[in-house]
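Exercise 7. Predict the joint structure of the components listed below.
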Amino acid sequence: MLQPSSACVGCAPDGLSPELRQRVAACTACDARVLSLCRAIPDDHLDRLAAISVAVDVGPGGTFIEEGEPASSFFNITRGTVKLYKLLPDGRRQITGFLGVGDFLGLAVSDSYVFTAEALDAVRVCRFPRRRLNEVLDDFPALERKLLEIASHELVAAQEQMLLLGRKTALERLASFLLSRADRADALGRRGIPLAMTRTDIADYLGLTIETVSRLMSRLRRERVIALPEAHGFAVLDRPALLQYSGGEGPVL
Amino acid sequence: MLQPSSACVGCAPDGLSPELRQRVAACTACDARVLSLCRAIPDDHLDRLAAISVAVDVGPGGTFIEEGEPASSFFNITRGTVKLYKLLPDGRRQITGFLGVGDFLGLAVSDSYVFTAEALDAVRVCRFPRRRLNEVLDDFPALERKLLEIASHELVAAQEQMLLLGRKTALERLASFLLSRADRADALGRRGIPLAMTRTDIADYLGLTIETVSRLMSRLRRERVIALPEAHGFAVLDRPALLQYSGGEGPVL
DNA sequence: CGTAACGTTGAATCGGCTCAATAGATGTGG
DNA sequence: CCACATCTATTGAGCCGATTCAACGTTACG
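Solution:
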């Protein structure tokens, strides 16, 4: 937790404190700016967000949201990768998503978080107090629309994942997962595709065991569909085959 | 499809056409009013919504949203029950949710729907053209906030369902499902709990086969955990047992 | 009624899991 | 730099929960 807020919140834009001025600069230069909800706020009002946000660093394995805890903050990821998961009392785990730079977290309805958020690697997040962000939302409807857009996107992804978990075979699940990671990496202009998560994480995301994931990875490598040059990462050798295995793009209409 | 819109959209509230006046009255009296997003709009501006909405009746088995079709409208359910599902090319189906009176549909990000919506029984929906509703949203931020709230709720439910589909056993899935239906019915003040959906629907919702659902229903009846007085419907005899079987309420914190 | 759709029950099969052993990767201190 | 411990990943053998296949009841409805 860095820099607990001590800025003059009610200040006019031209009367910014030095600290706040610095934070606005940080926001302006932020890697996640163009990707995330901050994009929805005009540059000259960025101080409103800067004034209520705090940058927080989280090390690998660190949790910054815990299921059941009071939901006091929203988060925006500006560095690293995060996994979200839910647990059953006996320890069974379901990872509901992996989030990266620009992604937003904390849209809980109740006053408690319904999932845990854990850093996969070195993560930095922007933390917004729930109440304060709501105030900003009142003044910038565009921000609210952006949030709605984000929530809708997540809903679509969640429905796709339900189809995967409920109806796809193990091979189809893994192929779908690898494809989605590959597409994501392509969008970022990569060739070799990094996997920040472990086999256990992949298994808990796909509703499988690590053994099954490992076996199928080996099978796809044996069949020259993918290559596994490094421990954490892969490359797609035969995209059509992967697409075939993935169970396709939904119904042909 | 009833009454294609021919109302004077720009009219002042006091200059309503007879037809629009009638629609506003229908909105005011609507069963879903208190439950749904319309609640977020003040009574004296209800004409804005009434002017752009059209009531549509859908018979059992009728689909009013189809996966892949252009997403031109939002819907609000005012009568009956609806199932949402996604299909794989070979016909495997995953039902992603059941919606009832007051529920809202059509929050698609892309310009195509990503699921199909089918009526389980006699359904009536309020249809809002996407573009027109967005205009109303601009004038009533409270509506937008309501939509965000709805989307957040659905996201929470989707995550819970991912845990169910990815990590729960067949018995746990069925018990969880029956409990959630029971809770929903209790909230509406019922004793015997109706199931508008068939065994096939339940199976496709829980990621199981109809045979497994049927066997487990029989087992729970044999164990006096539930009763099955009618074909479509059940009663909870031993709620603690059902809760036990359901895999519990998440981690004990 | 008759018939078609829905639901139940049984027997056999199989995909993915459990259990177990080994190999590789990563990190630490001598 | 190597020895060692630990964590992660791979591979095999056997098992089990849920599915598949099949037969039979039951319900809804023209």
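Discussion. Residues 169-170, 208-209, 211-212, 215, 231 of chain A lie near DNA strand C (CB under 10 Å from a C1').
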